[in-house]
Each structure stands twice: as C-alpha cells, then as structure tokens.
Specification:
Order of helices and strands of chain A: HEEEEEEEEEEEEHE
Strand order of the largest sheet of chain A: 1-2-3-4-5-6-7-8-10-11-12-13
Largest sheet of chain B: 6 strands, mixed
Structural class of chain B: alpha+beta
Largest sheet of chain A: 12 strands, antiparallel, barrel
CATH superfamily of one domain in chain A: monomeric porin ompg
Number of helices of chain A: 2
Radius of gyration of chain B: 23 Å
CATH architecture of one domain in chain A: Beta Barrel
Largest interface: A-B, 61 and 82 residues
CATH topology of one domain in chain A: Porin
Number of helices of chain B: 7
Distance between the termini of chain A: 40 Å
Oligomer: heterodimer
Chain lengths: 291, 569
C-alpha cells in the first residue's frame, strides 16, 4: 500500500503538473498570441502566428521558380536535396524482461517519411510464457504542426489473448514540451461508442554523457466499461517507472529499472475479482535501441 | 592554354585531390572524366566564371554522368588561394576536394620565401547519408558535451541555486542545447590536415630565417576549425583568395569553404599547427619544422563553453546600443572581449552611439549629433555614407521575419540581432589570445567596389535542430523560389541568423563585399561566416548572368535545405 501512495503521488506529479505546466507554456509559445498583433513589440523567439505584415519569402523571385525563368535547365530538371528525401527510423524504447511475472514487454516505434509528414507505427505489448498476451498497435499519419509537435491521426488495433480484440480511431499529439518533457497523448474512439485516452511522459537526466536516468509515466482512461477485457471506465491505470541506462553507443543502451503499476476504479475491481493485485512493483531489465 | 585531366575517383586516387596551380589571366581547359558509378561534378569554389562552368548539378548543368567527360573552359580573372570540390551529394565529404592556387600575373604583393598549402578536412568511415539519417532521428546524437546533472550541482555549489537555475532556464524552456556547437563531432569524424590524421603528423619544412606563407583551406564538410600555431604570430594577408591589409593575430576561426593565407616567421625550431574543432571534440594537427626529426608539444583542447545569451537573443540591450554587445546579462565571459576589441578598433566603438541615432532621429538630426560627438575618437569616414541622399547607404536594422518563419521548420527567431563584427565567436571569447574577427579584415585598395546599392534583400538563416531541418526563411530548398538579381545592379544582401549555430554562407558566381552596420565596405569574400543571432550584410554586383547556388557550406545544412538558387538576368 505504501507503494501505491508513493507511485500515485509521483504519477500525479509527473503526469499532471509537469505536462500541464508545459502545456501552459505550449499554449503560449506554440499556439501564439491570439491578439495577433506582435509586430516587434513583444519578444517571441518561438512559435506564434505570423503578423499580417510579415515578409513574403517569395518576394525576391520576380516570377522565377526552380524550373522556370531565365537560364533554367532544360526539361524541367532541377536540384533535389535531402529536404525532399524520405528517411526511416525504428526505435525500441523498451524491450524488457520482468523477472517476477516471467513476462516480456515491448514498446517500439517506427516511422517513414519526410521531415514534416510521416507514417508512424507504434506497437506495445506483453509476452508471457512465450505467448503474446496483449498488444496495442497504432498506425498513424504524423504531421508536423509546430517546431516540436506532431499531430498523429490513424487507427489502433488491440489484441487480447483472453478477451475481445478492439479497433479504434486515434487522434493524438506527440512532441517535446518545454523543459524537455517527451509527451505522447492520444484520444481514441472505439466500437460501440467507447472512448479512451492515454498519455505518456518521459524525461532524461544525464549523470554522464552515457549514463542516463529516465523517469517515465503513463496514464490510461476509458469512457465506458469494457467487461470482456476487464477495463473499467474513468481512470483505469497508471504506470510510473525509473530506468537507468548506459549508452554504449547512442543507439544501443541496456537498462535496469523499477516500475510501479496501479489499477483504479472498476479496472481495479476486475483485478480483485481475479485475485490479482491492483498495484505492483516490478524490477525490470531491458534494452533501448534505435536504428 | 592549360589542359588538365582529372579522374574523379577520389580525384586521381588521392585525398586531398591534386593541387592545381594555374595563372591569373590564363584561359584554362579542364577535362573531368567521371569514373564513378554515379553522377558527379567539380565546382571551382570562389572562382568568377560563366555559370555553365560552375559545376552545380541541377543548376549550372546536368552533372557529369558515369563514364562521361565534361570540359570546363574559363578565363581566370583573379589570383589567390582557392579550392575545388564535388558538388554532387556528399561526394565532397568522401574526399573529392583539392587546392586550387592561382598565381598573380603581376608580382605577388605577398612576399614569402617558402609556402605550404594546409588543407583541413574531416573524414568519416561511415556512409555520410547514414550519418545524416541519424541526425534526422536524434539531432544531438553526436554531441558528447551535453549538460549533466553533476554539472548542475557543481554550478549550485559555486554560484547558488538561483543562478544555476537561471543559467538553464531559457535553454530548457526553449528546448535548445547550450552545447550545440557542431552537428558532427569527433565521435563521427577524424580531422585531417592535408589528408593526414593527427597521429600521422603532417609535416611542412622550412629553412631557418625563412618567411613562410601558409595557405589555409577549410575543405571540411561540416567542421569549423580554430587554428593557431603556438609561439608564432600569424599575419593574415589574404582571405578567400583576396589580399587584405596585413593583420597579426594568434588565432583564427574558419568554416567550410573559407580560406586564409597567413605569413609566419618561425625561428630555427619546430611548431605545432593546431586546428581544434569548434565543439572542442577533436583536432587536426601537423608540424612546421626546420628538420624532419623535431616536433613541438601539442596543446590541450580548450574547454567547451556554453553558448551565451548573445548567441540566442543577439543584442538584448537593443534600444540603447544595437551596434555593441554590452548587454548586462551577468555572464562574466561576455563583455571583456568586445570592450577590448572595441578599444582597439575605433570604428566599432562608434557603432553604439551611431546606431542609437538611427532609431531615434532622422538623418538631419544625425548630422547635428555628429558635431557633438568626440570626433577624435572616431576613425570612420562619414563623408562616404551620403546619408542624406541614399536611403540604402546603411543596412536596414529593422528585423523582418518571413511569413514562413512561424511554422514547424524553425525552432527560434531573433528579434534583436547583434550587428557588430568584432566578436570572435563562441569558445574564442576571452581566451587570452588575439583572435581574428571579421571587423579586422580590410581588402587591399582597389579590390572592393564602393558603389552604393540600389536594392536590398533580407533573408534569414533558419533551422530546427530537433527535426534536423535547415533553411532560409523557414523554407527548405525544395519549397523555395529563386532570388532574382538584376545583371550588373549593385545589391545589398542582409543575412540574419535566426539559429544558434554559425553558418558559413557561400554565394557562387559573384563576390560578397562584407560591410559593417554603418555601410562601410570592409572586405571581399566568397564565403561569410554568420554567427548565432547575428545580422550581417554584404554588397554584391552580379557581373555574370545565369543561375547560381547560394548555401550554407556546412554540407549537411546545405543538403537539409539551407540553399537558395540565384537567378541573374
């Protein structure tokens, strides 16, 4: 029970105060001053809306384009640079083994696309005794809306070994909040009118250039009870963890850590009915990687 | 008529490629055969020539296809130290660069008994595009000098909690790193001197008593070097191939694309030519000695310095003194340099007062104000400003951000840029050495055109480190339209750096005549380094029609989109 208190407090702290503080600044810096008049009177080094008299970046073109106008190359040929190329990444944030449950957890993300528009795939799940227990996969179109934020719109598919698989429409936002909080928040609309909301926050503390502490918190809400999957409406669960990783390279970092998970409301009641605990403390070891 | 053949396979099999020594006034024909499996090109960096000969695929020509030979033909209208390199993809980064030395037709005004070309570069064993992709995934992937928690506690111990927090506040709030000094560090690159790694110790010999001319070329892809030769004074005599009034310094910084010729007078001894990277992660080095068996000590790398407020905000104290950087930000490192150099350079001293007048008075009132100022302390020649007559006599100070600077492609804008040129830059301020600044450079008489500009172009250098996107005005090359310049019309270009990195800006096909914020033309360059939050301007007269490239010469910034096409017609 002590763990519950500690983790609840920490979860609240990280998930509510820090991101909300960030969101407050986010609102100021990313969304701009709604009065719309900031022609030089106010220093605003980031974000905001362009004032009406802002300079036209094409004003010096005098009608020329990269393929048209005097001395353009024949056949519309022109230079193409990496801003028009597509890149990819595969990021394994958590690939870990939980000794107490004899279970493995994976949390992977991949993207493919340009700087501002990407196909994003996120998948996370639990494997127990070599069998996939649960899996949630989001397939999203990520679109940059400001310096540090992408909207993500798409679908989510939930797999339950015991239970009923679910499909959702996903509307999210992922990015970097002021003070370096990595945030990922998504609202879901599912079958038979159920809704869900998940938020994840991560932070990094560098002890050295390679030894890094990473607190992480996650919170889940549901709009309705999902009896088949034993999920209750309202605040359903939280997870808060602290991981310490060593970056042998930036791309390869084993870690150890501890994670506290809590279930709330009807979700906790379902757990109790199954004689499962509604709060757990787990020690984890895993690997963070990307390529 | 001189004919040469270059096989672009690393260029004749060596790194750097062979040095070309040509003569001013000559008509040259250079046949370049592409033995690679991919299209290639050679660009003659800093050379005035017809645009079809400039060697930028997709702009000046189609490029040289595999197996094809392209014939470059042009007349050399200039002399000095230059270089050439591939302008295709990242080929330059894999060794396709060499020195291009053009001897003056008349007697060289620079007298030396001996000379060495010192070409600095950076080498990676990885595929450059793979390094680029890594930066797209994680912008700070190669930065191993990031702020840490123990540093924070050290800071608290020495300066108190409030100061330690305050020092970090702006950086953390803006999600910018104070040690973001280079995208690629020694963790990815090996720094080379004439193609030689530090351990292999490139050596240049001289005879006792000789005056030695060193032709420094920064042929690196992405590295600023801070160059010095401990125990020797460096007399800078040429910048970007153009002769300058000699100025004696201990050290100079130069970015990719720039060249400096210095004359040194070594004693009967050995000296280390030491070129540390701007981010202090590594160095290139070699030895200058009278004999092959003696070496000099190698200095330690300087400590990493955090970017200062002036690198983020420019000149905070804008209303009072746009020209100077005496903002009282409480950073001990900030003020001494500009004070010292201001005292040395009286033209700089005047800027504060002068620029203040601009903001508050009309030109008539300004002339009045001059009479009340201490003329004894003013080295500037006001007569050539013609302030009452030409509204473009002085570069405009009003910051005009582009519409496209408010989107996802940029992570910051500067509203109060600094316009002084006497700042040696991050890591070189107050290091106890006399460091070259742009304010020190004066072209030798007769080089620079003093004609007044007829038009003004303002462009901002922009980027987003987190997304690893670089651009002008927030528009990457693919979304941009060209900048049109009228043939033979003198035009002023204002470049304002809205990023926290330094960018060496290279305009092809025409000279960039750097001016100060009072409109005094100082020096003729082909590549001008623009510091964070700095606003500089130069005048150019495009004498050659055609399409020209204009870009940051940090190769990754260029390829990420900090690139514009210029149409002269």
């Amino acid at each position: 029970m002590r763990n519950l208190t500690l983790s609840t407090v920490l979860t609240s702290a990280l998930l509510i105060s820090a991101p909300l503080l960030s969101l407050n600044v986010f609102a100021q810096t990313e969304m701009g001053d709604m009065s719309g008049d900031m022609a030089g009177d106010k220093m605003q080094p980031q974000g905001g809306d362009a004032p009406k008299n802002a300079r036209d970046p094409h004003a010096y073109a005098n009608g020329t384009t990269l393929t048209q106008g005097p001395y353009a190359l024949a056949d519309g040929e022109r230079l193409t640079l990496a801003d028009e190329y597509k890149f990819y990444a595969i990021l394994g944030d958590r690939l870990e083994y939980n000794e107490q449950a004899d279970a493995a957890v994976f949390d992977l993300q991949a993207w493919y696309g340009t700087t501002f528009n990407r196909l994003v795939i996120k998948t996370e799940g639990d494997v127990s005794y070599g069998k996939l227990e649960e899996n949630q996969t989001d397939i999203l179109w990520g679109h940059a809306i400001s310096a540090y934020w992408d909207t993500q719109v798409g679908i989510r598919y939930d797999y339950y070994k015991e239970g009923k698989n679910r499909q959702w429409l996903a509307f999210g936002i992922q990015g970097l909040a002021p003070y370096w909080f990595e945030l990922d928040m998504t609202a879901y609309v599912g079958e038979s009118g159920n809704t869900a909301f998940t938020a994840e926050a991560e932070y990094e503390l560098l002890l050295t250039q390679r030894l890094i502490i990473q607190p992480r918190a996650e919170i889940t809400f549901y709009g309705k009870d999902d009896e088949q999957n034993e999920l209750g409406s309202g605040l359903s669960s939280t997870a808060i963890g602290v991981r310490v990783r060593y970056e042998f390279t930036r791309q390869f970092a084993p870690y150890v850590g501890v994670e506290w998970t809590n279930k709330f409301g009807s979700t906790a009641d379902y757990a109790k009915l199954n004689e499962q605990s509604s709060n757990d403390t787990e020690f984890v070891a895993g690997l963070r990687f990307w390529f | 008529m001189i004919k040469r053949q270059i096989l672009t396979q690393g260029v004749n099999g060596s790194i750097p490629a062979p040095t070309l020594r040509l003569k001013e006034g000559d008509d040259v024909t250079i046949r370049v055969t592409n033995n690679l499996a991919v299209p290639s090109s050679i660009h003659w960096h800093g050379i005035i020539l017809p645009y079809q000969m400039d060697g930028v695929p997709g702009i000046s020509f189609k490029g040289i296809m595999p197996g094809e030979t392209f014939v470059y033909k042009f007349k050399l209208q200039q002399s000095g130290t230059y270089w050439y390199h591939s302008h295709s993809g990242f080929q330059e980064m894999t060794g396709m660069y060499g020195a291009l030395i053009i001897e003056p037709r008349e007697q060289d005004v620079i007298s030396a008994d001996n000379e060495h070309i010192i070409q600095l570069s950076d080498w990676t064993d990885d595929d450059p595009m793979e390094l680029f992709r890594k930066l797209k995934i994680q912008g700070d992937v190669f930065n191993f000098n990031q702020p840490t928690v123990p540093e924070f506690f050290d800071d608290i111990a020495t300066s108190g909690v409030a100061n330690a927090l305050q020092r970090r506040e702006m950086w953390n709030q803006m999600r910018m790193s104070p040690t973001d000094l280079a995208d690629l560090s020694a963790s990815a690159m090996t720094y080379l001197m004439n193609g030689t790694a530090p351990m292999a110790n490139w050596r240049g010999l001289f005879k006792a008593g000789e005056k030695v001319r060193l032709r420094f070329i920064n042929g690196s892809s992405n590295t600023f070097f801070d160059v010095r030769i401990p125990e020797l004074k460096l007399t800078v005599v040429q910048a970007d191939g153009q002769n300058v009034e000699p100025v004696t310094v201990d050290e100079f910084r130069f970015g990719p694309g720039e060249t400096y010729d210095v004359v040194v007078e070594p004693k009967n001894d050995a000296y280390t030519i030491f070129a540390q990277s701007m981010d202090r992660s590594g160095y290139a080095k070699g030895t200058l000695s009278v004999a092959a068996n003696i070496d000099a000590p190698v200095p330690a790398l300087d400590p990493v310095e955090w970017l200062a407020m002036r690198d983020m905000m420019g000149n905070m104290d804008h209303s009072a003194m746009p020209g100077m950087d005496h903002s009282a930000m409480g950073h001990a490192s900030m003020d001494k340099t500009s004070m010292d150099q201001g005292a040395m350079d009286h033209s700089t001293m005047d800027h504060g007062a002068m620029a203040m007048d601009h903001s508050t008075m009309d030109h008539g009132a300004m002339a009045m104000d001059h009479s009340t100022m201490d003329h004894g302390a003013m080295a500037m020649d006001h007569s050539k400003h013609n302030m009452g007559k030409n509204p473009l006599a002085v570069p405009s100070q009003k910051v005009r951000h582009a519409k496209t600077e408010y989107g996802a492609s940029i992570d910051m804008r500067v509203d109060t840029p600094r316009t002084n040129l006497d700042d040696p830059g991050i890591g070189l301020r107050n290091n106890g050495r006399r460091v070259l600044t742009l304010a020190d450079l004066r072209s030798l008489d007769g080089i620079v055109d003093h004609q007044a500009p007829e038009a003004e172009i303002e462009l901002h250098l922009t980027g987003n480190m987190e997304r690893y996107s670089w651009s002008f005005d927030g528009l990457e090359f693919g979304k941009s339209t060209p900048v049109h310049m009228k043939h033979n019309q003198r035009v002023r270009v204002i470049l304002q750096n809205d990023t926290m990195m330094t960018h060496p800006m290279h305009l092809h096909g025409m000279w960039s005549d750097l001016e100060n914020d009072q409109g005094d033309v100082l020096v003729r360059r082909h590549t001008i380094m623009v510091q964070p939050a700095q606003r500089i301007s130069f005048l150019t007269t495009p004498h050659d029609v055609g399409r020209w490239a204009w870009h940051c010469h940090l190769l990754f910034h260029m390829d990420a989109g900090m690139f514009r096409e210029v149409v002269v017609s």
